[in-house]
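Lab manual, section 2.4: Encoding a predicted structure.

Procedure: take the sequence of the chain (481 residues), apply the prediction step described in section 2.3, and record the output as structure tokens. A sample record is shown.
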Amino acid sequence: MGKRTFLYILVFFFSATSTGVSAQTLNEARKLYEQGKYAQAKPVFQRYVKQVPGNGNYNLWYGVCCFQTGDAHTAVRHLEVAVRKRIPSGQLWLGQAYDQVYRYEDAISTFEDYIGDLKRRRRPTQEADSLMTLFRTHLRMLKGVERVCVIDSFVVDKDRFLESYKLSPQAGHLYPYEEYFPTSESTGSTVYENELGNKIYYGETTPEGTQHIFSSTKLLDEWSPGVTLAGDFSGTANMAYPFLMSDGVTLYYASEGKESIGGYDIFVTRYNTNNDTFLRPENVGMPFNSPYNDYMYVIDEYNNLGWFASDRYQPVGQVCIYVFIPNPTKQVYNYEQMDKEKLRSLASLHALRETWDDTALVDEARARLQQIEQMPDYGQKQYSFSFVVNDQHTYHEKADFQSPQALALFNQYKEVQKACQQQHRKLKELRADYQQASPEERLRMTSAILDLEKRLDQLEKDIWELAKQVRNAEVTSITTK
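Recorded output:
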């Protein structure tokens, strides 16, 4: 062998060794994995799985990364390999991945083996037992999937999703919390106002940091203080996105908690007039609920159309709005007689056409939806604002004002309101900085916070006084005509 040939072989050997081992890259991916940074670790594990498809550890790590980044279907394939290779914790993750793709019987079977292994090794089973209970609950829901016709769906930005709800005036109105309560220091989800404009339900963050649903009633020209819903809501958390049916009794809302399939689920409760409390809520089930966030369930009885929002299969910041035909009574598919793959598809709304039993009904519903969308008075996005003048008049456009003086005062009212919102945001930022500041910095910041609080107090008084002046001027103009 010549010297030059030997050098070529040596260079090739070191090159192949350095690119093939990549120990440092794998170690970095493992560290990211252990830190919960699955999206960053995922590409590295994917590369290793392609190089060595039968490696159980690579499949486990890549499968967990897929699961944690919202790709449960891919996760299942790789976690099945990990389980066949008897990689520790493989069954734990595979069972959860099966659950995400509605394969509940497979999830239960996998966890029966997993719990059996834990018991043989005398390991605690509490976590596995809790997950097994969830899988069995989800299987019961799959056996009761509602037969509902979903006529359309469209993806929108989450921060403006309410604009897609085209309700008739008879169904009431929906508002973003920040729009309805522009001067509030709290945060919230949405506000539902009934047709008469004298009752609202809204999701608001409590001082404890969780969201709850409050109601308020208009008394003359003022709203009563918000009160939390009374009833048995044990086991629920972060209740939000309320909607009250026209019967004044049936309330839909979304909540997290032990009775949810995953994230927010849609629940229904009914008001008990005998004791002034709401009955124990029920999960509305599939296909409305999923392992993802599902919320803002609304029914417009006047147009016989329903809406709900879901982030299933959607990127961050976007949400899918589903439009359906409400059932007068709940009808479910026959679990025992149906093909399980088709039932899973119906439960997850994988293909809307599968829900169409009568295309004539779909065409009629779509025609109603199109007609609503073409009417400029429908949909809250057409309103520039909502200003209550008195019990008979609520204005949504500046053109509604009959008094030039009232309109001029209203413009001042809006300017002060805007300034108040800006100061509220500034105060919130100052308070957040205060929590992280040193004792010396806090001493310096205290006077600024106190000054800002006084300024806000005065602005809110100015807003209240201007609102009264607007109403007085407008009412005088209305009554003299």
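Check your result against the sample. Residues 1-23 have pLDDT under 50 and may be disordered.
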